[in-house]
Design brief:
alpha/beta, Rossmann fold, seven-stranded parallel sheet, 7 helices, binds adenosine monophosphate
Length: 200
């Protein structure tokens, strides 16, 4: 772990695939988000690996001058290729510790294309938000329509009465990375409620 500690920076937690996916646009979007984090003077919090889109977003953020904080369970160091070039790499014991630290160290969350790990992380912070455990904004970057089917399903759950519009509206969706990051930054600025992760 290197020692540079960033303070007073907006901290964006990015959830994304440990694979690159089957379309070059996903890698482009990961690179764009990493670069934007640097250009905005923010820092990146993510899962700490070099694998897939995770590695791409981290390398782009580092290249753009952003501090990058990785949090990875010891058991995944090999599988997800723990990144040795980060500003901080926290090797924790469990997945729960990982998710807790990532959430605690962040002011906002953003999901890029990914698989079930990404879905789980996104849905967890979304449910934590609706329960009032935190007040941090949550974005979904719908790169090339990757999440269209999920958004359609969420519309279906609305129609069938299992979620309501106030819950749906907690998710800020866009296909334009600069716009979405700006929105998340503004929402984070407005968010005032203290986090209470001890209740989780
Ligand atoms: P994936 O989207 O499946 O490629 O996974 C993206 C990231 O999510 C990887 O760092 C996984 O280790 C992580 N992940 C996988 N399962 C979980 C889980 N149950 N909770 C939180 N993160 C997970």
């Amino acid at each position: 772990m290197t020692t540079m500690v960033a303070t007073n920076r907006r901290s964006l937690c990015v959830y994304c695939g440990s694979r690159v996916g089957g379309h070059a646009s996903y890698q482009r979007a990961a690179r764009e988000v990493g670069t934007l984090i640097g250009e905005l003077g923010w820092q990146l919090v993510y899962g700490g690996g070099r694998a897939g889109l995770m590695g791409i977003v981290a390398d782009a953020a580092l290249a753009a001058g952003a501090p990058v904080i990785g949090v990875i369970p010891a058991s995944l160091m090999e599988r997800e290729l723990g990144h040795s070039g980060l500003t901080e790499l926290h090797v924790v014991q469990t997945m729960h510790e990982r998710k807790h630290m990532m959430a605690e160290r962040s002011d906002a969350f953003l999901a890029l294309p990914g698989g079930i790990g990404t879905f789980e992380e996104l849905f967890e912070v979304w449910t934590w938000r609706q329960l009032g455990y935190h007040d941090k904004p949550i974005g979904l970057l719908n790169v090339d329509g990757y999440y269209d089917a999920l958004l359609e399903f969420i519309g279906h759950t609305l129609d069938k009465g299992f979620i309501d519009m106030s819950q749906r509206d907690l998710l800020e969706v866009d296909n334009d990375a600069p716009l979405l990051l700006r929105r998340l930054g503004e929402s984070a600025e407005r968010a005032g409620a203290p986090d209470d992760y001890r209740r989780i």
